[in-house]
Structure formats: structure tokens, C-alpha cells
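Translate sequence into C-alpha cells.
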Amino acid sequence: MSLRFITKSIHAYLDYPVAFALMGLPFILGLGASNPLALWLSVGTGAAAFTLTVLTDHQFGMLRILPYGVHLAVDGAVGALFLFAPFLFGFSGLDAAYYWANGIAVAIVVSLHKPEAEPATA
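Result follows.
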């Protein structure tokens, strides 16, 4: 039994709320105490995530230019960046915890992605 249960459809439902949360939560939480980049890295990543979602070939993509696999690869890279950001940029306290929590969440979502079945050929 595979633990991979996050489908392309489930992922699509998560994309826009996550993008907006990445843009808004830093202000609500008051990020940036240890380094102003802690605030703006999340805001910029949220704006990029919104754009990525608009461009992704899934049910809520508006332009559907980018393959879903590219979207997953970018998500994986963002998760890794968020996990290492506190070390790279000297984030501490809430700033570091925010990035670690988000990095872990992204890593979990990407790792639990259920591959799509290949279409049957005749």
C-alpha cells in the first residue's frame, strides 16, 4: 500500500491558498525581526507561486503552459530553499521556525504526490 495520496487535483486545490498565505502571513506574523529578507523572501515566493499556478497545466491553471512535472520540481526546490534559508540568511526565532515549518510542509506534499497513471495505448 502506497502512502502517496496527493493527486494532481488535490495539489491544484492547495496552490492558490498557499500562494496567498505566503504573501500575507509574513505581515500578520511580523516576520523580519532577524533579517528583513525573512519577510520579503516569503512574499516574493508567494507571488512566484501564484504565477506558477496560473501557468501550470492542471484544473485551476489559467494558461496551462507549464507541465505539472515542472510545477512539482519547482515546489521541491522551494521546499529545499525554505529548509536551508534560516542557515543561509541567518534567520532566527519565529523567522527560522516559519521557514522550517513551510519547508517541511512542502517537502511532505511533494513526497506524497501520487504519480498519474500512464494512458493506455492500443
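Note: The radius of gyration is 16 Å.
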